[in-house]
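Following up on my earlier thread - several people asked me to post the actual chain instead of describing it. Fair enough. Here it is, all 321 residues.
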Amino acid sequence: MTSWRCKRFIVTLASDLHCGNRPLGSVIRTLPFVPAHLPWYAVAAQLPRLFGWGDKSDSYQRAVNLLDPVLRFSPFLPLAADADKPLLPWGADMDSIETDLLGSRYRMALSHDTRGAVENRRFENETLLARSRSGKPTRLLGCCFWKPMKDEFGMTEAGEFVSAPSGRRKYPLADLLRNSQWGGQRNQGMGAIAAVEEAPTNDATDTASNPFFQRLAEGATEFPRLALAPAQPGLFYLRYDQGNAAKIAGKPMPLCGRRYSQEKVSGRQAESAAVVWDMGWRLRDAVTAGDITVDLKDRRYACLRENASDEANPLRAAERC
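Reply from S.P.:
Thanks for posting it. Predicted structure:
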């Protein structure tokens, strides 16, 4: 088993972005960041075309099965317009996001039966703007974690997909991200990406400039295992369970979504629901942060792992993750 690699990417939006959040009245709100699973599925959706598998459901399921053990992302957070500082989706940073980066579009609800607008059903679709109100392009910062592999296609140490068996054609992760669209309302042109660049690497212990848990565990692990910095707020959703409830300060919430299903119309299949701590959770003061890590087993959220007790009790680790 090989070790995981990590790179930080800065993504510049080409169009407004909508990542659906719980509605408020007639406002269909957006998340002020891109959840970790969206770039994952955007990359997976390109593999059938790149490797000539055909545009069919089995091809996309094949891509999901191949990528699941070897690729993960962090959430992508908007950067401040005048600096490379990520804006966190709470507190004063959230005030800055709402003031400078959030906009909306008015929409009409449509009837599938009449193929027309539904009377008195106008609503507001909130978006993360492609350009801030200061006029600068909106940029997002996030991490990619990958594990080199050799299978029906290969993935290199540098994070490039390689066509098998010749390996002559290489598809860097940055190119796949640039060619993708994120979030919902893609048929309205939302979520297009203008540019992807690799962000400078900072010292993993410098929590002021490194907002993500990038301190990967040494050696081979089944999934990315990241150390929590002391007093650092959680920037992944965290799986909730009774065993960690007393250790975490934060807001529990349901996490669900919609998926494509071959048996149902696109968007009508519900994602398996999970209860998680919302982003911004913290370890309570009584917990020693240096003894805590998280595993990115699921594409949507992290799992809390206590090194000593979990290694001694594999069943407990399996329950947590």
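Residues 98 and 233 are 20 Å apart (CA to CA). That should answer part of your original question.
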